[in-house]
C-alpha cells in the first residue's frame, strides 16, 4: 500500500529501468517502478507490487522451476506449430497429479495451460491442489516469456466443485480458517498475474471453483456448464473473493440474488448475465470452452506483450479509483511502453507493411 499527498507523473523515460510514479512491474528482469501519488480519499489504494519473496517461498519457487514438465500423451499431446491438432486436449483418469501444467510451443509459444486433474474428487480444492497452484502461479509470475494462461479442467463434465468437503470435514475447527485464508490468497495471486488469464469452464464451477474463475480476466463456458456460488446452502458465505468479485462482474443486485438464493445457472444464462464472456455449444469431446479459450489466447499471443501487461495493469488499478486518478494511472502505464524496443518494432512493421515480431523488450 502506498500513501502520498500529491500527484506527480513523469512521461520522459530514457530506458525501461527508469522509474515512473504509479505501480510496480518487471520487464526483462529489471524492476520498473511506477508509483502513483493520489490526493484526498484516493490517497490510499492498493498498488500492484513486485516484492522480494521470503526464503521459504523462494525455495519453493526454485524447486518448482527446476521440475521437468513431461506429461503423458494421454494428458497433453505434443503441441504442434499450428492447426486444430495443436488444440487437441485429452483427459486423464490418473489422479496422482492434481495439477498438470503445459507450456505450449511452436506458434503457440507463450501460452500456458493449467489443467486441474482430480477426477475422484470432482476437482475440489484440497490442500495439495492449493500448494501446487501456488507453485505454478509463482513460476508463471517470474517467466517473462509467458503471454497468456488458460485455466481448465482435465476431468470431463467438471471445472471445479469448490472446496474438498471430505478433507474439510477431517480438519479441526482451528485449521479451517487458515486453510480458507490460504485459498483466498491463492485466488488473489491468480488474479494478480501480470498476463491475461482465461478460465475455460467445460463443466460445473461451483463455490470456490467459480471464485477461481472470477479471478481470471476472461471466462468462457460451455452452454451446458453449471455456475454458482452455493455456499449459503451450507450456512456459510463465499470466502475466497466471491462476495467482492461477483458484484464487480455482474452488478450488486444480481450478485446478491445469486448468492442469497445459492442459484446455479447454465452457460447461456451466465453469458446473458455477463458472468462469462462467451458461451459455446459443448462438443462430443467435452472441451468446447477450452478450444474457444485457446483460440482467444492465440489472438492475444501476437500482440505486444509489454503493452498487454500494461493494459491489464491500467484496467485493474483504474477500475478501483475515480476517473481522474484512473486516467493518471493510464498515463503512467502508457509511459512504460514508450522506451520499449517492441514499440519501435511495431512502427517499423507498420511502415514496412509486414507483421510485427515482438520480443517483450
From TrEMBL:
InterPro entries: ClpP/crotonase-like_dom_sf (IPR029045), Enoyl-CoA_hyd/isom_CS (IPR018376), Enoyl-CoA_hydra/iso (IPR001753), Enoyl-CoA_hydra_C (IPR014748). It is found in: Mitochondrion. One of its GO terms (molecular function) is RNA binding. GO terms for cellular component: mitochondrion. The keyword Amino-acid biosynthesis does not apply. One of its GO terms (biological process) is fatty acid beta-oxidation. Pfam families: ECH_1. It comes from the Eukaryota. Its main location: mitochondrion. SUPFAM superfamilies: ClpP/crotonase. Keywords: Acetylation, Lyase, Mitochondrion, Transit peptide. Belongs to the enoyl-CoA hydratase/isomerase family. This is AU RNA binding protein/enoyl-CoA hydratase. It comes from Nothobranchius furzeri. The lineage of its organism: Eukaryota, Metazoa, Chordata, Craniata, Vertebrata.
